[in-house]
Design goal:
Length: about 120
């Protein structure tokens, strides 16, 4: 089952979960209170138990489908981005290393005696 199949299954489970929650009455009456006493055929007194169990089951199925859908998602390392489109190109980032300055050359220089006026006389 591909990612699209998981999305369809998650949507169906969500709608069923919404229906199961909307049928329940928050104060405990729910669907079973609208049918009257326990004399009814078909076991209407067990309706609240069924709705409670189906809500928990659908919630568990929904969590499992969401976790399994991450395994089917294959969009994490591909270059075909759906957000940018195919016509957008991203220029490569270029960095230039700073030029290192040359160290001054240390030559052995000899100093000649400086002639001064007094020494010249």
């Amino acid at each position: 089952m591909g990612f699209t199949g998981f999305l369809i299954a998650i949507t169906i489970v969500c709608f069923l979960l919404i229906l199961a929650i909307m049928v329940q009455n928050p104060k405990g009456g729910g669907l079973s209170s609208s049918f009257g006493g326990s004399q009814q055929l078909g076991g209407v007194q067990k309706t609240t138990d069924f709705l409670d169990k189906s809500t928990w089951t659908l919630g568990g199925i929904l969590i499992a489908l969401i976790l399994l859908s991450t395994l089917a998602f294959n969009g994490s390392g591909s270059n075909d981005s759906k957000v940018l489109g195919d016509d957008v190109t991203i220029p490569p980032v270029t960095t230039t290393a700073p030029a290192t300055p040359q160290a001054p050359a240390t030559e052995a220089t000899t100093t000649a005696p400086v002639k001064t006026e007094e020494a010249a006389k």
